[in-house]
Amino acid sequence: MAVYGAQRRRPSTPAGRPPVTLNSCTPSLNAASPNADGSVDVVVRQFDSSMRTVLVGGFRVAAPEWALAQAVPELPHRNAVAVMDSMLRRGLIDLRCLDRAHLLARGRRGVARTHEWWSEADGRAESPLESFGRVDCIEGGLPPDEL
């Protein structure tokens, strides 16, 4: 069994599984970029036992707010904001879920540097490049008035 923060690899799964959406607060599951042999690697981590999970495409995965709480502290600023923007735009989460994800992330390793990032999420961004540009402006001291 893995311990907090440890990683182990789950056997690869076939690429090309169809996307599945269960409800407005559940992510779609698309296979990651396949390896040369067509398999896809999945990293499995163990977090606290109160983490809510959902069944997606036959796999038990973290609920969207838990997935953000785990991912944002490990991502660079631009990527973290782009992921939050995308989840908001696609309707996978709403602002309430985003706030809850931020609360769930508190106390996790790496989250201290991310507290301001959570308020930068904006579901109007239509692409990661748009999110990256907005973050670059914010970091340069020129936050945009509108997207």
Q: How are the SSEs placed, and which strands pair?
A:
Elements: E1 7-14, E2 39-45, E3 53-56, E4 59-62, H1 64-71, H2 77-89, H3 95-105, H4 128-139
Helix pairs in contact: 1-3, 2-4
Question: What's a quick, concise take on this entry?
Answer:
It contains four helices and four strands.
Structural account:
The protein is α+β, with helices and mostly antiparallel strands. The protein has 4 helices and 4 strands; from the N terminus they run ββββαααα. Strands 1-2 form a two-stranded antiparallel sheet. A hairpin with a 2-residue loop joins β3 and β4. 19% of the residues are buried.
Instruction: For the record, give the distance between the C-alpha atoms at the N and C termini, rounded to a whole number.
Output: 45 Å
Number of strands: 4
Main-sheet strand order equals 1-2
Overall pLDDT confidence: 79
How much of the sequence is in beta strands?
A: 15-25%
Helix count, DSSP H or I runs of 4 or more residues? 4
Helix-and-strand structural type:
alpha+beta
Low-confidence stretches: 1-15, 17-31
Question: What gross morphology would you assign?
Answer: globular
- Computed over alpha carbons, the radius of gyration is 16 Å
The helicity comes to 25-40%
Largest sheet: 2 strands, antiparallel
- SSE series: EEEEHHHH
